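hi support,

uploading two proteins for the ticket. first:
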Amino acid sequence: MRNKYEDAIKLLEDNGIRYESVKHPPAFTTEEADKYIEGKIGCRTKTMFMTDQKKRRFYMLVMDDKDRLDMKEFAEIANEKRVKMASEETLYEKLGNEAGCVSPFGLLNDTEKEVQFYFDNAILKEEIMTFHPNINTETLFFKTEDLFKMLETMGYEVHFVDLNNEE
């Protein structure tokens, strides 16, 4: 069986992307993870995996972890009537991830390239991003520009969006 963590690290290293790693106890929410990386510089992100009502189209959105997503607004942006959070079963089927481990590294398992990737412009100015590397016992810090380099290498177009980010 493939090691999803090793795949994530290999992707960074194969692309010359420098990163810093913080190992910690399992974190199932961004709030939990934030406690373990307190004091470190980097935008705390949350990655959301969504689908349309009929589970035909899939969306990954990266945004600031302290912002709330207006699902109706995102549905409009994605040109859908409605979107919803993907079930744990769909998450595992499409990305090979469990809840609490969703990050752009899950796209390594999207062999059909079905997921559309969205990034909130509100955090574009942040120099460093944080993500779990397909496991929730470690947080990686690396440059925002390297995230986009990584996604391009993987064959993904980034859709930059302006969300209202209501608290």
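and the second one:
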Amino acid sequence: MAALPAVEGAAVTALRSVMLRVRQAAERAGRRPELVRVVAVSKTKPVSLIRQVYDAGHRCFGENYVQEIVDKAPQLPEDIEWRYIGHLQSNKVKTLLAGVPNLATVEGVDNQKLATLLDRAVSSLGRNPLKVFVQVNTSGEASKSGIDPSGCVGLAEHVKLHCPNLAFSGLMTIGMPDYTSTPENFRALLNCRNEVCKALGMGEDQCELSMGMSGDFEQAIEMGSTNVRIGSTIFGPREYAKKQ
């Protein structure tokens, strides 16, 4: 067995702390910690830093920019479960899917046109069905992507019934930046899940909830999140040296 480094990197130390906090939050809510997925969001971070976290045993990573994930994915092991998070421009669908064969999920389908384009692209590339989360704008902020909660059932139905190459897997939201309305945002997503599951005849365990980031992931887990997206708490402050 290879010798372990005497001192592990800051990102690895931070990851271990996050995983402990996830476990504790789940236990406080009477939930099984292993049912909560931690997505390490690595946008603006170098491949070398992602590799450190990978070498520590983590396999689920997320990116927000198509060019970044397309550049990084080929430089890293194929068993990484990549997730594209946030709004995806229609003209970048093929670039994303062709450039990242191990893309596991798109967390950010916010309209029927995008869902249909993803469905067609998956088919044309001969890929296995792609998991997608419907992004819901629970805060009502004009600056945020996501469908209005009133439209989440219709969009989920479109994916489930009319996009055979997509697998509707859950709902995603982004809370308010100052966290003052976070509980309301999360409760709104819970309500959306209830409506979607009733309309589609699904069990709640078949519809994941992606809510919670660095500043509010423990509260999100306590409220039922199955998928938390942690960036700066693991990797440190983001560095926007180049215009994305």
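thanks. also noticed: The beta strands are 37-41, 60-63, 81-85, 103-109, 130-135, 166-172, 208-210, 227-230.
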